[in-house]
Design brief:
8 strands; single chain; eight-stranded mixed sheet; alpha+beta
Amino acid sequence: MTPRRAAPLALAAALLAGAATTACEQGESTVQVKPDDRQIAEAVLAAPESRRAAAGVLGYGSDGRVTTLREGSNELLCLADDPESEGFQVTCYHRDLEPFMARGRELRRQGMEGEAVDSVRFAEIESGELAYPDHPAALFTLAGKSAPEDPSAGEPPAESQRLTVLYVRGATAEQLGLPAKPSGGVPWLMAQGRPDAHVMISSP
């Protein structure tokens, strides 16, 4: 698995195409998994502060597989930091994106990689087999070199970066009035015309 990096575009390439792939799930875990309460406190840091308390949280069990740590009661689902990846990265996204994300994790457990994963998922979306939202849906990522010392304080780790993504199914740059590639730090549309078209919004 490619090591994590804090640069937003690198995160986008790894996360948005991979949809939360985990090294733990590709074999037996040999890394100590953090306690559930620690995973939860870290994971929700990616979410807007007003959405954290009610967000659901996915994390890692003793076998290294993704499991539900907290059900939550709002529209966000957060994914804890992968214990087998370098650096620190947590992500929260709209619950309606979870079938798409979960399918990506499943295909990678089967050994599939890169464009092959998207080809399968897009075909399944087109056929109606895989649920995918017709409405815009947000995703928030927080990444840095290391985890925060005290995540319960609600502060992100030092020198971390945020990436906000808004999925707009099948959108084109012309429809949204946005550039189709990075342009002077303004929001831009990635993967235009595809089911997973998304607006990229980075910030310090």
